Amino acid sequence: MINTDGSLSDTSAGYGAIIRDSNSDAIAAAAAGSTTPISITVYELQGIEAGLTLALRHNLNHVCVGTDSKVVVSIFERNGNNVPWRGAESNGN
Questions:
Q1: How confident is the chain (93 residues) per 10-residue block, as mean pLDDT?
Q2: What are the C-alpha distances in Å from 70 to residues 21, 37, 74?
Q3: C-alpha–C-alpha distance, residues 64 and 25, integer Å
Q4: pLDDT at site 10
Q5: Which residue ranges does the record assign to the RNase H type-1 domain (predicted)?
Q6: Where are the beta strands (DSSP E) in 1-93?
């Protein structure tokens, strides 16, 4: 299971991901932050990207992704949607 999260305040933001096995033991984790907030959706998506990248590095081919963001779930449910994986790209940089 890849559990992801994003957070956003007026002055900072960040995201994280943790991969756990079926016994709830942590396999890998990643976290990063930014001092220039963009949007919570961007950070939620970056958490998913970080988790999937970790899964690839650990040769995990079958994973479940958990998020508490209805917006992010709706993005993945849309067919043909281009997901803005990088915050800088969605910010016009």
A1: 90 92 93 83 91 92 90 81 49 36
A2: 24, 20, 6
A3: 15
A4: 85
A5: 3-77
A6: 2-8, 13-20, 26-34, 65-66
